[in-house]
Hints:
By secondary structure, the protein is of the alpha/beta class. The protein has helices spanning 3-8, 19-30, 44-51, 77-86, 104-112, 125-142; strands at residues 10-15, 36-41, 65-68, 95-99, 117-120. The protein has 6 helices and 5 strands, in the order H-E-H-E-H-E-H-E-H-E-H. The longest helix has 18 residues, at 125-142. The chain is globular, with a radius of gyration of 14 Å.
Amino acid sequence: MNAETDAKSKTIFLVEDNKADIRLIQEALKHSSIPHQVVTVRDGMDAMAYLRQEGEYKNALKPDLILLDLNLPKKDGREVLAEIKADPKLKRIPVVVLTTSHNEDDIFHSYDLRVNCYITKSRNLSQLFQIVKGIEEFWLSTVTLPSK
């Protein structure tokens, strides 16, 4: 990438523990016309370390969009969401919960914590690709995001 492309490139932060879902989401994003990079961590502790640029993540890029699973090891996605939205340096980063949970309590609780969007993952491959494409088009192309 050249310097101009780098300036416009978006960083998508995927917090997901399921290897198959990671692969599918990355594959769905691979065909994007929007310059981007996907950074992935597999548990809530690493998610917060990355976002706070701690330890091995001290040079981490601030993401333009966070795709967050709720059911994570070490630190639950609900806790991660609460910490993100309580942190003045992180709270403006859009967070899309992308989870298999249809639980009404999870939905209400996520919105109470100020999630930007709650989407239930489809187990149907073409529907999942459509969902990811819709997220990407809306959050990285349509909306105006806060500057870093």
